[in-house]
Amino acid sequence: MTNTAIAQRELLHRLLGLTGQQKQALDAGDATRLNTLAKMRAKVISDAAAILPPVVAWEPEVADLVSALQRSTAGLQQSTGARMAAVRRQLVQLTKGSSAAKYLTGTFPLYQSSWKA
After folding, report:
1. Structure pTM?
2. 117 lies in some domain
């Protein structure tokens, strides 16, 4: 195995670990940890740019890890999208509830219009 393949393998293992940690943070609803891990992941990738495509092609020996990382990352993206959609739905419901409560308490701004002939 070449030095590049060894470095790529170590990088891919590191990224797989970070992706798993990100998934755990997302599942736990820990936005602070998720953000910290995302920054760590970006730094790891930036620091390793010299051994990553398009600078250097993936070595054939790490193809299995590349595929695993792609699957893991896709799963994280899907989970993140689903979580964001759920938060949006909850915000809509809270907004609707808040508007109804304001209306019922008389603090909701009422807009009146009239027809002029």
Report:
1. 0.79
2. no
